[in-house]
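During the no-cost extension, the postdoctoral fellow (Dr. R.K.) reprocessed legacy sequence entries with the updated structure-token encoder. One reprocessed record is reproduced below for audit purposes.
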Amino acid sequence: MKFVDLANMYKAIGDPTRLKIISLLNTRDCYVSEIVALFDISQPAISRHLARLKQVGLVRERRHGMWVSYSLNHNLIQELGISFNELPDFSQELTEI
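Re-encoded structure tokens follow.
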């Protein structure tokens, strides 16, 4: 991986909202509507954050008809040796939406 790519990845992780999205996706794959329900920001803003995470390769999207689910790219995360185990667990919040 190029130095610039790695720097951009860490810049993407450095945003508190994106880090919270990563923490959420570390719990399980989610649809945009599920992510929006846990944040106090608009759906377009969440989509922009997801697009940034996807751009640097940390997040993958999978289309299910009209729905799009997002997941962490665990292969890249493992390759880089990044651990998100210390991030908060959102499993309880996900059961409430």
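Residues 43-55 form the longest helix (13 residues). The CA atoms of residues 60 and 78 lie 15 Å apart. The remaining legacy entries will be reprocessed before the final report is submitted.
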